[in-house]
Specification:
FAD/NAD(P)-binding domain, about 25% helix, 3 domains, five-stranded parallel sheet, alpha/beta, about 25% strand, globular, single chain
């Protein structure tokens, strides 16, 4: 029987970071990462394999980020975990003993069982599997018409990238607008218009009823009766947590299918932790269970777990998930942090919103200047920042992160309004009209109007 102090099951972002963080905090402990994949992809880079990168080889995370610090990697599949005796068994019949175990088993692609024809040839999903995606890319290159089902981040980014290959791409989204599950309508509509302008056809507010064809898919039938011809169909309809191994080991699973964890990422067994897409999430603001699956969230959880493997620190806890999403279409970035205005109203928060639209560089006559739109959602009485959205140049991603920092540190609109910032003509908006501060100013004005100030 092999032995290791810390056994990490899963080698994507969460598994990698928990091993690095743990080895950094506990250098005398031995660490092993077990994963099925020979090569691991950068999860967020997967859509760009199909256009900007042109190959999955350019999206690979090198193993030496682990091996250089003494973490052992085993390419195998864990088939069972004996939590009582603290061992696991792999597909090649290796038994491995551990002191601490971390589930970083990620998620699986969601294919609804009601979707007739999903098993046909030329129907694909988007898993984090290099060999599968290599096959999908080879197929896409031979096609003229591609239908992508699902207008979330993966579906939108994949549509834009495949469109760069000169293919006719149609994106089907059941909601009124793409990305509407993450963004408020103002931002969703801007992203939708941008994607359309780049040549992607969009079918909104309608679902797919059936995939057409005999053994091989030839198109899709929409719920409104419209038929779309296709040489290939890509289902991007979400993911669900991969928790069967943990469940079979007797680890508690919550009502949404995630592994139950505390603020230190520990399960109900103090020697077993879980991080990433398979681990339970609670919204930072509402405290409700949610289903956010992000590599950035996974890495934050993994750092907390790694630091708390063998001892607990009161300041090293995970206080809740802040949904921070960003994407880009060409040179325009889109981002959202915290809760949307719709969620705020649904949860009965009394909120005001602040908007501002300016430019991302100054003066506005500089080359490559883009408009920059910021929206803030603010609690009316306390002034706490609850959420925000950004549309602008590629700096929108970092501006979104600033909103995330503001939420996590419980900043108010007034504290944003008086924040000290650094600006530069080629890098940021002007100090006189910094969109984030101006949006806070607009929110504060509404708060004061309510109070009669």
């Amino acid at each position: 029987m092999k032995k290791t102090d810390v056994l990490v099951i899963g080698g994507s972002a969460a598994g990698i970071v928990v091993a690095i963080s743990g080895k950094t905090c506990y250098p005398k402990k031995s660490f092993m990462v077990i994963r099925k994949e020979k090569k691991v992809l950068v999860p967020c880079g997967i859509p760009y394999i199909f256009g900007s990168l042109g190959s999955s080889e350019k999206d690979v995370i090198p193993d030496n980020v682990l091996t250089n610090i003494g973490v052992e990697i085993k390419i195998d599949e864990v088939i069972s975990v004996d939590s009582k005796n603290k061992t696991c068994t792999t597909k090649d019949y290796t038994v491995i003993g551990y002191e601490k175990l971390v589930f970083a088993t990620g998620s699986k692609v969601k294919v609804p069982n009601w979707l007739k024809g999903a098993e046909k040839e030329n129907v694909f999903t988007v898993p984090k599997n290099k060999e599968y995606l290599d096959g999908l890319l080879a197929k896409i290159k031979t096609c003229k018409k591609i239908v992508i089902v699902g207008g979330g981040f993966i579906g939108v980014e994949l549509s834009d990238e495949i469109n760069k290959l000169g293919k006719k791409v149609t994106l089907v989204e059941i909601l009124p607008h793409i990305l509407l599950a993450a963004f408020d309508e103002e931002v969703s509509c801007k992203a939708e218009e941008m994607l359309k302008s780049r040549g992607v056809h969009i079918k909104n507010n309608v679902g797919v009823k059936e995939i057409l064809g005999d053994k091989t898919a030839t198109g899709v039938l929409l719920e409104n009766g419209e038929r779309l011809d296709a040489d290939a169909i890509v289902l991007s309809m979400g993911y669900y947590p991969n928790t069967d191994l943990a469940k079979n080991a007797g680890v508690a699973i919550n009502d949404k299918g995630f592994i139950k964890v505390d603020e230190y990422m520990r399960t109900d067994n103090c020697d077993i932790l879980a991080v990433g897409d398979c681990a339970e999430k609670r919204d930072f603001i509402t405290r409700k269970l949610n289903t956010v699956m992000l590599a950035s969230t996974a890495c934050a959880e993994a750092r907390i777990a790694g630091m708390n493997l063998f001892k607990l620190s009161a300041v090293k806890t995970f206080s809740g998930t802040i949904a921070i999403f960003s994407t880009a279409l060409g040179e325009t970035g889109f981002g959202v942090a915290g809760i949307t205005e719709k969620i705020a109203h649904d949860e009965k928060f009394d909120v005001v919103t602040g908007f501002f639209e300016g430019v991302d560089k100054h003066p506005g006559s500089l080359p490559s200047v883009q408009n920059q739109f910021v929206k803030l959602i603010v609690a009316r009485e306390s002034g706490l920042i609850l959420g925000g959205g950004v549309v602008g140049g590629l700096s929108a991603g970092e501006l979104t992160n600033i909103i995330g920092f503001a939420i996590q540190n419980k900043m108010t609109a007034n504290s944003l309004l008086t924040a000290q910032i650094g600006t530069h003509p080629l890098i940021t908006a002007p100090p006189t009209a910094y969109p984030l501060i101006k949006a806070a100013e607009a929110a504060v004005k509404k708060m004061n109007e309510k109070r009669g100030c």
